[in-house]
Amino acid sequence: MKNRVSRGWQRFSAKLIRVFYADCSEPANSVVEFDGFIRPHAVPHNPLQLSESGFNGRDHIMEVEQASTVTNFTVPGPIGAIPVRLYEPQGRVKTGDLQSLVLYFHGGGFVSGGLDDADLQAQYIARHSRAVVLSVAYALAPAKPFPAAPEDAYAAACWAVKNAGMLHIDPRRIAVAGDDAGGNLAASLTMITRDRCAAPFAAQVLISPMLDPSMTLLGDAKRLKSDMTAEACALRYRQYLPQTMQRLHPYAAPLEASRLAGLPPAFIATAECDVLHTEAEKYAAALIRAGVHTQVARFAGLTHGALRTHIPLLKEIVEFLRRRFSATGSAPTNLAFQPS
């Protein structure tokens, strides 16, 4: 592991609590060839589901008063209908100014989880940022391995833009967010939209993301007192990425991406007691080097499962989103379904 971590990165990670970096580059669109992005024999989606009991540390969840109108429905996807849950702030009037939208992707290690796992986060963001939140139940492995999940994420984003009028949202002010595997999908979705020549998102929020299928940067679970282990990560990656070469594709392994310029401003949150915090912070450093406005926060004493529902974190996310939505320009968007 030491061979992959430079001295500069060690100094960076040792003192890194929050880092800001202004946009400083004019990105050029890039294209990643990916023939047969969805295999024809892929199976349809599972119905709405709950997460495995205790998988994501629900004992740590603080209650948040419901202050949103919640609607469950499905949107069209490449291999079947995608279950989604829409959170609209209470008292919202669909006249006048358009609102922002946050696309949220739940955790579960690519193999489990569902809309209920993102409920507290979505409720909090909708209530306190006054943004509409669309939580997405993407395809799960092993029945539907990579690249089904990122394609679902892209389909949900395209649906939201196409239906911006019905949702009464401003398509220029859309952010993506996710925790655990959902953080991976949020990061990959920013690359997909860039590579397919769509307008960039206003922001990305990654919470304890799984970004490195090579697992070369994993911390020592025993020393960190982590609730996530190398064995658990390996099992999930094997199911999500059954082909070895898939582990090098940037849509599956954002940490392996060599082209990061042009991605949206990022907020990356890590937990001190999490084997994944080093890879997430290294990704933040790579974004900063690429000229991407990036903010990083490491939360002391928290585990992987506890971070996503940590109220101080959610407060920081809301403030970050408010700043980014306010800073978004007025350029038109062309996000739409495009062939892969």
Description:
- The protein has 340 residues and is α/β, with parallel strands linked by helices.
- Helix content is 30%, strand content 18%.
- Strands 1-2-4-3-5-6-7-8 form an 8-stranded mixed beta sheet, with helices on both faces.
- Helix 5 links the parallel strand 5 and strand 6 (203-207).
- Helix 2 packs across helix 10 (311-327).
- It starts with 6 loop residues before the first helix and ends in a 13-residue tail after the last helix.
What is the compact description of this entry?
By secondary structure, the chain is α/β, with parallel strands linked by helices. The protein has helices at 7-15, 119-129, 148-162, 164-167, 181-195, 221-224, 230-240, 277-289, 304-307, 311-327, and strands spanning 68-75, 82-89, 99-105, 132-136, 169-179, 203-207, 266-273, 294-303.
